[in-house]
Amino acid sequence: MKRVVGADVARGLAVLGMFTAHLGDERSVTFASLRWMEVVDGRSAALFAFLAGVSAALLSGGPRPVTGARLGHARVRVLGRAVLLWPLGAVLIALATPVMVILPGYAVMFGLTALLLSVRTRWVLVGAAVVALVGPVVVSLVREATPLTRLPQPVDVLVGDHYPAAVWMAYLLAGLAVGRTDLAGTRAPWRLLAWAVPLATVGYGSGLLAREVLPPDAWRTRALMDVAPHANTTPEVVGNVGVALAVLGVSLLAARHLRGLVVPLAATGALALTAYSGHIVAIAVMGNAVVWQPSNARLGVFILVTAVVATLWRRFVGRGPLEAGLHLASTAFADALVPAGRRRPDPIPGVMGSDADQQPAVEHREPPVGSRTPGAPPVGDDLEGDVVGEGVGEGLAGELRGRDPLGPQP
């Protein structure tokens, strides 16, 4: 199947949105008039989690889910990456920046998603709905019972104040279901937008309505209907899923009709883990004042440098450094545990539009790593994708080389 460049564009927007939430100055006239901080705060991280579910679906076959050994291989790869993300998140937390690091919770949710790769899509959607309804109540009860207690990190990741898996799994499950649809189809963006509008309207609308009609003494119900960023309530989750669908739908359209303009965003999305981690390291080096005393000029520099470096890195190097580490480690782990499901890239010269993570196994002798067939990329390079910011693949590479990245349009 063709590379879903639109997913990388959406992921790039999510990463840059988190930059804005952490570094943007909402007191500026421009930001205040557009209420831009309200747009990116909370929703960017939710979009990032939603796209993790999409990536997990693509890794396991997309609209044609893999089975048997291939499914086992995909599951182990996702689990391996989840295991590696936890210590990376711990390192970023140890830098003691004001940023609430999403990676430990992301790792837990990613691992849980790996266990659900074989579940039918309808039940994945049912699971997402159940989590969205029940999770906020569970988290609220835990908060009431432990208002001043610092929870152990494993417990905090599940039901704590920031990115609780008991609520945020709804985003990954929704993304997993969406990733099993034909995102490369011409109707896919419009289907996503058709669902986005009612979900966003019902989610945010119900929360705003509750704020107006519920009496002040109904504080528990008001809290469970809040739609403020990171409220972790059912209305907020439903609304955020609607926004995620809309962003993905628009990104798919942009990747098809505005190919050249989306290259920096797609590159940033392909290096999402590196970009996200890098901006936290930069904050630690520059000092926490860059968060507490924000500057939109400084934010602009962060965004510009990230987009330029990501684009050049994708053009001349390929997979990002953290993405490459996760890919190599998780693939080696999966190859060792499930050798029968090992992916075998197609060695035929000129086959440039496929993604080995999304292709069925091809029975042939695999050429040595590093060998190059004339006209084809090196084995293990751009034809493979990463779950955490899966590679842009030939779509972006083609754009950077001056040819149509998406191929003939239907």
Can you give me a brief rundown of this structure?
The chain crosses the membrane at residues 45-63, 83-116, 123-142, 162-180, 192-210, 237-255, 262-285, 297-313. With 410 residues, the protein is an all-alpha fold.
Structure description:
Helix content is 64%, strand content 0%. The chain is an all-alpha fold and 410 residues long. α1 crosses α13 and α6 crosses α9. The longest helix has 27 residues. It is globular. The protein starts with a helix and ends in a 10-residue tail after the last helix. Keywords: Membrane, Transmembrane, Transmembrane helix. InterPro entries: HGSNAT_cat. This is Heparan-alpha-glucosaminide N-acetyltransferase catalytic domain-containing protein.
Biggest sheet features: none
Instruction: Give the overall silhouette.
Output: globular
Helix content: 55-70%
The quaternary state of the protein chains shown equals single chain
Number of helices: 18
**Overall pLDDT:** 83
Q: Tell me the number of strands.
A: 0
**Domains counted in the coordinates: how many?**
1
Derived from helix and strand composition plus strand pairing, the structural class reads mainly alpha
Gyration radius, rounded: 21 Å
| Low-pLDDT windows of residues | 346-387, 389-410
Strand content: under 5%
Order of helices and strands: HHHHHHHHHHHHHHHHHH
The N- and C-terminal alpha carbons lie at a distance of 15 Å
